[in-house]
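> call design_seq(struct)
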């Protein structure tokens, strides 16, 4: 009987931990949208605008805010989905003096902002300790 109770408790704890991790991802993505909207911690208006547009398109394309998207997905699959988010590349014009200039690739990208979310998610996916499962 004790073994069955532990198994049921373990399953519930794993489901709860998984849902908390997914909620963290969703909240973090909303946080990035807010960050790019307010120009917070970005190098320029143009940069935050491009990243905001790209993130918005990727969220929509992958339906990341739809409850069905992560319904039965493992945390490993959620991490893969985040790693697959595409980031645009663009150039910043330099040395525009006297009409001559060149274009250098801009360094900012979405993955720089997504990587901390993935790192947090990995902490959740490391597993639960046995003492977390025993009531």
């Amino acid at each position: 009987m004790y073994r069955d109770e532990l198994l049921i408790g373990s399953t519930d704890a794993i489901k709860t931990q998984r849902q908390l991790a997914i909620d963290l991802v969703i909240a973090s993505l909303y946080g990035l949208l807010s960050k790019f909207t307010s120009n917070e911690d970005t190098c320029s208006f143009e940069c935050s605008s491009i990243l905001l547009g790209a993130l918005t398109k990727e969220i929509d394309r992958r339906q990341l805010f739809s409850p069905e998207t992560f319904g039965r997905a493992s945390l490993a699959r959620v991490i893969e989905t985040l790693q697959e988010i595409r980031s645009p590349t663009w150039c910043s014009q330099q040395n525009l003096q006297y009409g001559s200039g060149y274009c250098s690739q801009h360094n900012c990208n979405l993955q720089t902002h997504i990587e901390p979310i993935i790192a947090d998610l990995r902490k959740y996916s490391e597993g639960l300790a046995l003492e977390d499962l025993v009531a």
